[in-house]
Design a protein that fits this description.
- By secondary structure, the protein is of the alpha/beta class.
- The chain has helices at 17-29, 49-57, 61-79, 89-98, 111-120, 142-157, 161-165, 175-183, 198-204, and strands at residues 4-7, 14-15, 84-85, 102-110, 129-133, 168-172, 188-191, 208-210, 220-221.
- Strand 6, helix 8 (175-183) and strand 7 (188-191) form a beta-alpha-beta unit.
- Helix 1 packs across helix 3.
- The radius of gyration is 17 Å and the shape is globular.
Length: 223
């Protein structure tokens, strides 16, 4: 049905639970905040970090910006490899490639980190485009990252973005993946093996649900 698949990274391709939460704990410790239960920080996995520090800990924008600096200070050297690829992901990517599909990465993670992770796990070969956020905070929403991925791919192919969008779908595990895709006029396959629930994804407007990586090839239609 679809020719171009845009994938989220955290909670969709990899489980980054340890690396991200360790990095958040490090950042919060700079403000005298101690978190006893790691699972309390799983809500940081997926959404833009700046928003998460403001929404979940009441930081103002300046505090949140500095918290992101602290986070990346730890993540850059220690947290980045605190993750693993979900079982079945590489087989699914291989299958999509064999079917002639194009695969793009659209992640809220800074693009250099995303490239590093894909290369570390030998997954870079499957992606036509790697798009992520930037350190200048310009691509600071999922919608902007998705738009950047689509425009980059369209330019590389020498076609219009609309031609790409007519057969494109987003694959992600959180509501902001769905929201960002909706803002770009493409549907979403919500995966429930990540950090978002089926209820969250359906409420956000996901068109399909996939319980396993294999299901992404033939997801269940929501509506």
């Amino acid at each position: 049905m679809y020719k171009t698949y845009l994938f989220d990274l955290d909670g969709t391709i990899t489980d980054p639970g340890v690396g991200i939460t360790d990095s958040v704990m490090y950042a919060l410790s700079k403000y005298g905040i101690t978190v006893e239960e790691r699972s309390q920080l799983y809500q940081f996995i997926g959404p833009p970090l700046l928003d998460s520090f403001m929404n979940f800990y009441g930081f103002d924008e300046n505090q949140a910006e500095q918290a992101v600096v602290y986070y990346r200070e730890y993540y850059r050297d220690k947290g980045i490899y605190g993750c693993y690829v979900y079982d079945g992901i590489e087989v699914m990517l291989q299958t999509l490639r064999e079917k002639g599909c194009h695969i793009l990465l659209a992640t809220s993670k800074p693009e250099p980190f995303a490239r590093q992770i894909l290369e570390h796990f030998n997954l870079r070969q499957y992606f036509d485009v790697i798009a992520g956020s930037d350190f200048e905070n310009v691509r600071n929403t999922k919608a902007k990252v998705i738009a950047y991925a689509l425009s980059t791919f369209a330019n590389n192919k020498g076609v219009t973005e609309q031609e790409i969008k007519t057969s494109a779908v987003m694959v992600g595990d959180r509501f902001h993946d769905v929201k960002g895709a909706n803002e770009n006029g493409i549907p979403t396959i919500g995966v429930t093996f990540g950090y978002g629930s089926k209820e969250e994804l359906v409420e956000a407007g996901a068109a399909y649900i996939a319980a396993t990586p294999r299901d992404i090839e033939e997801p269940i239609q929501v509506r």
